[in-house]
Amino acid sequence: MSATTRRSLLGTGLRSVTTLGAMSLFKVASARGLDQAVLAINLIGGNDSNNMIVPLDAAAYETYARGRGELAIPKSSLVTIVSSRQQTTYGLHPSLVELRGLYDRGALGIVANVGSLTSPLSRLQVLAQRGLPSDLMEHTSDSRWKFVHPGFAAPSWTAALQQTVFGKEPFETFGFSSGLLVVPEERTKIEGSQMDNPRLLKAMTGGTPLRTVFPSTGLGKQLEQAAKLLQVGGSLGLGHPVFSTSLAGFDTHRDQLPKQAELFTELSQAMAAFYEATRELGIAERVTTYTDSEFNRALAPNAFHGSDHGWGGHQLVMGGGISGGDVFGAFPSLELGGANDAGSHGVWIPAIANHQYQATLAERYGLRPWDVAKLIPELRNFASPRLQL
C-alpha cells in the first residue's frame, strides 16, 4: 500500500488546536520521527475510581465520606492536586504518589465520569430504564474492546482501522506472555507466530539498554516491553503502534481497601516509569497513555467490605503532548440518590460516553475526525462527538 493511501486514513500527526477545540486535553502534536503511538491500560474488573480521586472541599468531602462509609480514604491521607477547570482541589489515592508528580508537571490529566452510553441520558430516563446501554455493568460485552488471542483485547477502533485499510484480511496483532499486545497501523512483514514472536523478542533485547528502571511487576514488565518496542519498532514496521496492556484484580466485591492500595501502587509506579522512558527516548510528546475499565463501582459499600458494580468513572491520560495538570469533564456530586445517581447507591450516570473518550484518543493517534466517525459510528448519537475539554 502506498503512503498516500495510508495517509488518506491517517493524518500527518499534525493537529490544529481547532480540531479538538481550544480547550482540548491535547496540545498540537509533532510528527517528527516516530508517528503517534497510543498505549491503553485496561484495569480489569471495574476500577473503583471513587477512591482514585476524591474532592477535598469540606462539604464535598463530607458527602463522599458519608456515602462511602468504611471505604472512605481519610482526608489527611489523600495526595492533594489542584484543578483550575473545576476551581477546587482534589486528593489522589495515597498509593498514586508518583502520578501526582506527573500531574503537577502537566504530563497527566484526569477525565471525569466516563462510561458506557449509546446516547446522552438524563436521570429521569435512567430511572425509567429508557435508553440504557445493553452492556451496562457487564465485564465482557463492552464494544470498546475486540478480543483477539485468549486473554488479550485490543481497542475496537484499531481492528476497524485495519479492516478499513486492508479489507477482509485477518486482524494482525502481536501478543506476549507478559500480557502486552501490539497492534500495528497496517499489516507488517514480520514472519512467525503472533504470540511471543521471536523476531520481536530479539529486537527488544537488541537496542541500547534503557536507563529508566521499571518496577518488577506484571504491569511494569508490559510497559518496559512497550518502551523497548517504541525504541526499535520503526525498523520493523511498528512505527505507528497501538499497545494494549492490562492490570487485573479490580473486581473488588470483598476487602477492597488493601487490594486497591496494592493495585494503585503497581499502576502508579509503572506509569511513571513508562513516561520517564518515553522522555529518555525523546518521544514523550508523541506517546499517549490512557486507562480504561469496564465500569466504576458503586460509592456505597456492600456487606463484604467491598463495592458492587457501578457505571461512570474517572480515567487517566498521560503523555508529554497533553495539556495535563487538570481535571476535565463534569465531576459527579457524590450524593447518594442525588442528581448524578442512577439509583440510591452512588452509581454515577456518565457525563462523557466511552465512544467520545475513545474518539479523542483515536484522533491523538493521528486519525482525522471524519475517519474516526467511520470507525466509531456511535458518535453520531452525540452532539459533541469527541471531547472538547
Report on the architecture of this protein.
With 389 residues, the protein is an alpha/beta fold. It has one domain: 3-Layer(aba) Sandwich (Alkaline Phosphatase, subunit A). The chain is built from 11 helices and 14 strands. The strands form 3 sheets. Strands 1, 5, 8, 9, 10, 11, 12, 13 and 14 form a 9-stranded mixed sheet that branches. A hairpin with a 4-residue loop joins strand 3 and strand 4. The longest helix is centred in the C-terminal third of the chain and has 25 residues. It is globular, with a radius of gyration of 20 Å. The two termini are 36 Å apart. The N terminus is likely disordered.
Biggest sheet architecture: 9 strands, mixed
> What is the CATH domain class?
Alpha Beta
Q: How many helices does DSSP assign?
A: 11
Summed up, the domain count is 1
What global shape is seen? globular
Overall mean confidence score, pLDDT: 88
Low-confidence stretches: 1-23, 28-33
The helix content, as a percent range, equals 25-40%
Q: How large is the share of residues in beta strands?
A: 15-25%
Overall CATH architecture: 3-Layer(aba) Sandwich
Structural class: alpha/beta
* CATH topology category name: Alkaline Phosphatase, subunit A
How much is the radius of gyration in Å? 20 Å
Task: Describe this protein with a few key phrases.
three-stranded antiparallel sheet; about 400 residues; about 30% helix; alpha/beta; 11 helices; Alkaline Phosphatase, subunit A; nine-stranded mixed sheet; disordered N terminus
